[in-house]
Amino acid sequence: VVVNERVGVFSRDGQIGPLDVSLDNFFASVVGGVTAWDPQVRYDRLSGRWFLTALNDGTPNYILIAVSWGPVITGSTNFTFFSFRQDEVSPPGHPDGWADFDGLGVDRLSLYIGVDVGSGFSGEFLGTDGFVVNKADLLNGVLTVTAFRGMYPGGNHRGPDDPRGVSNDDPNATEGYFIGTDVNSLGRLILRRVTYPGGIPTISNNISLTVPQTSQPLDVPHAGMAAGNPVSAVDDRLFTAAIHTNKLTGTRSLWTAHNIAVDAEGVATGFLTSDGSRWYEIGNLSSSPTLLQSGTVFDPIVWPARYFFIPSIAMSGQGHATLGFTTAGELNYLDAGAVGRLAADPPGTMRPFTLLTTSSTAYNRWLFSQQEWGDYSQTLVDPNDDMTFWTFQEYCDNTNSWAVRVVQLKAPPPATPVSAAPSSLCAGNPSTQVTLTGASVSGSGFFDPGPDTGGPGFLNHIAASVTGGASVVGVLFDSPTQVRLNLSTAGASTGGQDITVTNPDGQSMTGTDLLTITPQPSPPSVSNNGPICAGGTLQLSASTVPGATYSWSGPNGFASTQQNPTIPSVSA
Question: How confident is the model at residue 572 (pLDDT cuts 50, 70, 90)?
C-alpha cells in the first residue's frame, strides 16, 4: 500500500510487514532531496514484480520508479530505483514543465505513465503527456523511456485528459493503452493505442468513444461539516483502468470508472443533486473500441442524498465485477464502500452497496475551505485465483484524519454438487472418470482460471475430494455447473460417499451420498453343455454379477458380449 508520505507491506490478514517507511525515505536514492508524492503501485503477475511510481516536487520535476526483485518484499533493499526528468525525454517537453497526477499501467511489454503537465512557474496547464517504459529493459536494470507529448495539447483540442496508463495481465498482449476523458466534450472518452512495430512503441491518433452523458462532479457535503468545508471530488477524470479476460467467455475488455454529478434518476442532466460513480466496460479494443456496458451508482433521494466518488472497478476471470469508492452525504460521514455485480446480472446494473467502514468523526482539516481528499482508489483481482477482489479506499478514521481501508471481497461459493455420473463405482479401480453436476444458487459456480498459455500460470486451481479413501487424480473444469473428476477407488471404503469441490479461492461446497462404492465382485462362474455331438449347439453360461459386462472369445474368430451366448453347428 502506498500513499503520500508512506509505503507499507501487509500480510493478507492485515499485519504490517517488514517494509514500513516514509515515501521520501523509500525513494531517497532518486528523489533529489525534495518531496516525493502522488505514488502509484501495481503488482504484475506476469513478471512477479511490484512496480511503484511517484513524482518529486522539484521544478522541473522527475518521475520516480521502483521495481521489486521479486514478489516477496522484506524491505527497501528489495527494489531497484530509477528516475527521469519528465521534460528531457525525447522528444523534449516544456522546459519548465511540472508533471502531476501520474497514472500507472503495466502489461507484458511496458509501463504506461500518463501525466498532466503544468508550468512550474505560472501554474498554467500545458497539456498531457504519456511515457512508455520498456519493461524487459527495466527488469535488467536499464531505463528506456519513449515520450508521447501533447496527447491532449490543451485548449479546445481533443485528447485524453488526466490520461491513465492501462494495466493488462494478458500474457500474449501485443499493444498497450492510455485512456482519459475528453475535457471539451462531456460524454466522451478518448483512448490512445500503443503498438510496437520493429519493437519501438508508436502511438495512435485519438480513438473517441461516446458514452452516456457525463458532467463535472459536485463538491461533497459530509456529516459534521463546518461551514464552507465540503470535500472535493476533484473532477470527472478516470482514476484507474485495467484490461482483463473473462475466462468463461473469452471476452477481453477494459474497465474504468469516474465520478460525475447526477440527478435523482442517475442522469447527468437536469437538476443535479449528488455525485454518482459511473463505470464502463469497453470491448473490441484492437480495432474499433465499443462500449459493452456502463452504469452509475447513485442515490435516488434528492435530499439528503448520499454521494459516491473517487471510484475504481475491476472484473474477475468469472466475469463478476466490483466497484469501490468513498461515500458521504449531509447525514453521512466519509466512509469506504463497494458494490458488485455478477456476470449474469442485467447489463449496466450493480447490486446494493455495502459500507466497508463505519466512520463517526468529521473531516474539517482546513476551515472555511474546500477539503482536499486524496484520489486513492484501487480495486484489483487476486493474482493467485483470478476470482477474489481486493479494494483499497479512503475514509475518515478519526477527527480530521483520513486512512485507507483494504478489504477482501469473496466471490460466491462453488455450485452445490447434486449428482455424479456414473453414481456407482467398484472398489479397486485405479482410474475412472466421473462427471459431477452442480446447482447454481445466487451466482454460485465452479471456476478455474485455466492454463494461462504463455504466462506464469495461476497458483490456485479448482480441487475436489471424496470421502471413504477414494483419491481424486485430477479435476477438469467444464462450466460453472459441471466438472469431471478422475477418481481412483483403490483402497477406498464401500458405501455412499460425499464429494466436495473447492474453488481456487478456498471456498467449498459438498454433495452428500452422491457416489456409491461397491465391493469388487468375484469373477462369474462359467459352464457349458458339452461335450456335444457334431451338428449340436454349444450353450455357454455365466453367473449373474450386478453391473458387470461380459466378453467371450474362442476359435474361428468367435466373440460375444452376451451373458449366455450360443455357438451353433459345432463340427466334429
Answer: very low
